[in-house]
């Protein structure tokens, strides 16, 4: 896709404010035709600039424990372990990072006992993991999906 212009950024901003906006609502807001909004939106979706998704609140599903796990692995095993970690439904994010840990993982659990079992039974199965640190989220101050275009 070619470079985004000012209208594209305005469309993205409106979708971020309310992902339920229709093409016609955005067109009225931006004083352009509905066809223009439809065309631009589809072009951005098809090129991977954004996608429409739903955001589920894990707490409403009974997943009240969010764990952030720092993991160190044996040299040469990073790709293998990263793919293995990504296969677990409890894990929502696996990032390979620089610094003290090789991976930072975010995962949700029903309770501390399930987290403990996941660490001691599931993660312990990997002979490539040689160290991990588990932290439990106490409070979220910001929780967004993706990158925000505005500072509000």
Automatic annotation (TrEMBL):
PROSITE patterns with a match to the protein in the record: HTH_ASNC_2
Q: Which UniProt key words apply to this protein?
A: DNA-binding, Transcription, Transcription regulation
Q: Where is the HTH asnC-type domain?
A: 4-64
The cross-references to Pfam families, in alphabetical order and at most eight, read: AsnC_trans_reg, HTH_24
In Swiss-Prot or TrEMBL terms, this protein is called Lrp/AsnC family transcriptional regulator
> Which superkingdom does the taxonomy of this entry point to?
Bacteria
